[in-house]
């Protein structure tokens, strides 16, 4: 189960700028299968696609990622 503020890793491409392997943080849990996620670049800036800075992601697109 995923929870708010958990770090996740994408297992599939979401958009051309949000791709497999990227790490993000769950900002909102909509239900057990749907989350609002933010992805940041190495400088700490949000990735943006088509005017969106957060992305709705299904659980089938993510895996847990423990940050060290």
Describe this protein's structure:
Helices cover 0% and strands 40% of the residues. With 68 residues, it is mostly beta strands. The protein has one domain (7-64). Strands 4-3-2-1-5 form a 5-stranded antiparallel sheet, with no helix packed on it. It starts with 6 loop residues before the first strand and ends with a strand. This is DUF4926 domain-containing protein.
Keyword list:
single chain; 68 residues; mainly beta; 40% strand; globular
Task: Name the overall outline.
Answer: globular
Average pLDDT, rounded to a whole number, is 92
Q: How far apart, in Å, are the first and last alpha carbons?
A: 20 Å
Order of helices and strands: EEEEE
The largest sheet has its strands arranged as: 4-3-2-1-5
Major sheet description: 5 strands, antiparallel
The Rg value, from CA coordinates, equals 11 Å
Which range does the strand content fall in?
A: 35-45%
Number of helices: 0
**Count of discrete structural domains:** 1
User: In terms of per-residue confidence, which ranges show pLDDT below 50 for 5 or more consecutive residues?
Assistant: none
Structural class: mainly beta
Protein name: DUF4926 domain-containing protein
Organism: Nibrella saemangeumensis
Summarize the structure.
With 68 residues, the protein is mainly β. Helix content is 0%, strand content 40%.
List the helices and strands and how they pair.
Layout: E1 7-10, E2 23-31, E3 34-39, E4 54-58, E5 62-64
Antiparallel strand pairs: 1-2, 1-5, 2-3, 3-4
Protein name: DUF4926 domain-containing protein
